[in-house]
Amino acid sequence: MTLSRLRFVPAGYVALLSACNSNAPTDDSTSKNESALTSSSAPQSVARQRLATGQYVTPTALRGSVQQPLNPGLSAYPDFVAGEAVRSQLSPDGTTLAVLCAGQNSLYAADGTVDVANSTQYIFIYDVSGANKQAPLLKQVLRPTNAHVGLAFSLDGNKLYAAGGRDDVVNVFANNAGVWASTGTLTLGHTKGIGSGASPNAGGLALSSDGKTLVVVNNYNDSISVIDTDTLTVRYEHDLRPFFAGNEGQAGGVGGTFPFAVVIKGNTLAYVTSDRDREVIAIDISSPSSGHLIKRIKLSGNALGLTLDTAQRWLYVAEDNADQVAVIDTKTNRVVATIDARAPEGTLPEGDDEARHTGAGTFAVTLSPDGHTLYAVNAGSNSIAVIRIDENRRHSRTPNYEVVGLIPTAYEPHDVTFSADGSWMYVINGKSVTGENPDHLAGNTSAMTEITYPGGNTAAAAAARASNEYQFQLERASLVSAPVPNQGGELDRLTARVAENNFYVNNPESERMMAFLRKRIKHVIYIVKENRTFDQILGDLDNGSNGDSSVTQFGQTITPNFHRLASEFVTLDNFMDPGDGSMDGWSWSLQARVTDIETITQQINYAAVNRGLSYESEGTNRGLPVNFATVAERDGAAGKPGTTNYSTVTASLPGGTLNTLTGVGNHASSDAPFDEQGGYIFRAVLNAGGTVRNYGMLVNNIGSIGTKDAPISDPFAVGEVQVAALDPVLAPMTDVYFRGYDQSYPDLWRYTEWKREFDQYVTDGDLPNLSLVRVSHDHMGNFSAALAGINTPETQQADDDLAVGLMIQAVAHSRYASDTLFIVTEDDCQDGPDHVDSHRATTYVVGPYVKKGAVVSTYYSQVNAIRTIEDLLGTEHLNLNTAFQPAMSDVFDVRHPPHWTYDAVASTILQTTKVSTQVTDLGAVYVTGAAVTPVRDANYWAKATVGLDFSDADRVPTGVFNRLLWKGLKGNNPYP
Question: Of 108, 490, 634, 849, which is most buried, counting CB atoms within 10 Å of its CB?
Answer without folding.
Answer: 108
